[in-house]
Design goal:
five-stranded mixed beta sheet, alpha+beta, 2 domains, two-stranded antiparallel sheet, 156 residues
Length: 156
């Protein structure tokens, strides 16, 4: 069995596993199915950062011969990069040392206290919500997080 593209109106409509000998029989007999099911030729997938980029398939159909699958890499959209966490999941993104610093800062910093309480009370925490971004950036501004950790915590 090998992967074949199901061709409709010159475009790949789907993929099927097909015995190459069956297709060869169709070709030899002049069966029109031979032009509807074409063998798939794969090009190597490029390396990419799945956290920031998407792999997009691009098909080139050579009528009655083959369908060539190539790959493009594109940046993820804001919507695709958005992550949603529970309070526990979000707070779990911080290291033990960072959480200890947050606990200490809560005692004397109303902004940290407010951000922490909001995180605990939230039904969900969204990575690109302005309140989430502002709170995490504030933790960086007061030295609890590095800029690199801000991106990690926010899932960027």
């Amino acid at each position: 069995m090998s992967e074949h593209a199901h061709i409709v109106a010159g475009q790949v409509a789907g993929l099927v596993d097909l015995d190459p000998a069956v297709r060869s029989g169709w070709v030899a007999a002049g069966n029109p199915k031979a032009s509807i099911y074409l063998p798939v030729i794969d090009t190597p997938k490029p390396t990419y950062d799945a956290a920031r980029e998407a792999l997009v398939v691009v098909w080139s159909v050579w009528p009655n011969v083959e369908a060539v699958r190539t790959w493009n890499v594109r940046p993820l959209t804001d919507e695709e990069m958005r992550q949603v966490w529970t309070s526990l999941e979000f707070l779990g993104r911080f290291t033990t040392a960072e959480m200890a610093q947050v606990e200490t800062a809560r005692e004397h910093d109303q902004i940290v206290q407010s951000f922490y309480r909001a995180a605990l009370a939230a039904n969900e925490i969204v990575s690109d919500d302005p309140r989430t971004v502002a709170g995490v950036n504030y933790l960086s501004a007061i030295g609890i997080l590095t800029l690199a950790r801000v991106d990690e915590v926010l899932g960027r």
